Amino acid sequence: MTKILEIMNASPVIPVLSFKSAEEAVQVCRALYGAGLKVLEITLRHESGLAAIAAVKKDLPADAVVGAGTVLTPEIAKNAKEAGAAFGVSPGFTEELAKAVKELDWPFLPGVATLSEAMQAKEWGFTELKFFPAAVSGGPAFLKAVGSVLPELTFCPTGGISSDTAEDYRSLPNVVTVGGSWLTPRGIDGEIHLNLDLD
Ligand code: 3PG
């Protein structure tokens, strides 16, 4: 899969994952893949992020699509691509990052939360965007309004979404998938306990 839209279309939910270790990543991603979730976003918020991406990519069947989340800088983008991430996701949008991912020729989903950011991303050629943080930035009503002025943009809303609200977003014409961490909550024991409630 080379286009970000193809990747988004491959799954109605993209789990946003944070792991303490590569071992934990492999264990959890095996279970998610087994439940039919083939597009996985592993965030780079922990030291083990890049190792987790490499280990999961090696472990899962070839049709799994393992991407990197929390891509904040050109250097992180380069490292994530080198670790084998099939795509990258950023919570925001900067020109420096846009330029870098274009040069890397790497499927990328920049984050936006306002009309101006969406227009700027479009100027850079990004027509698929993460809407983040979705719930506190206006939720489905915001995306409905964006759709009336920028109908050529397609979104993956993320941030504060749960199985109760996922369909409110997905039923919009400019949304193809939603992202979220609700499938992999960490308990007070510090471990991830899967919640495979998809919608
Ligand atoms: C992200 O990085 O996309 C968010 O942390 C995911 O948001 P959520 O934890 O509210 O689902």
From TrEMBL:
Instruction: List membrane-spanning regions.
Output: none
A single Pfam family it belongs to is Aldolase
Source species, domain of life: Bacteria
- Its name, as the record gives it, is 2-dehydro-3-deoxy-phosphogluconate aldolase
Ordered alphabetically, the record's keywords are: Carbohydrate metabolism, Lyase, Schiff base
Q: Which InterPro entries match?
A: Aldlse_KDPG_KHG, Aldolase_TIM, KDPG/KHG_AS_1, KDPG/KHG_AS_2
Give the similarity note.
Belongs to the KHG/KDPG aldolase family.
What residue range is the signal peptide?
Answer: none
* NCBIfam families, A to Z: eda
Q: What PROSITE patterns does the record tag this protein with?
A: ALDOLASE_KDPG_KHG_1 (PS00159), ALDOLASE_KDPG_KHG_2 (PS00160)
What pathway annotation does it carry? Carbohydrate acid metabolism; 2-dehydro-3-deoxy-D-gluconate degradation; D-glyceraldehyde 3-phosphate and pyruvate from 2-dehydro-3-deoxy-D-gluconate: step 2/2
The protein's Enzyme Commission number? 4.1.2.14
Q: How does it assemble?
A: Homotrimer.
Catalyzed chemical reaction(s)? 2-dehydro-3-deoxy-6-phospho-D-gluconate = D-glyceraldehyde 3-phosphate + pyruvate
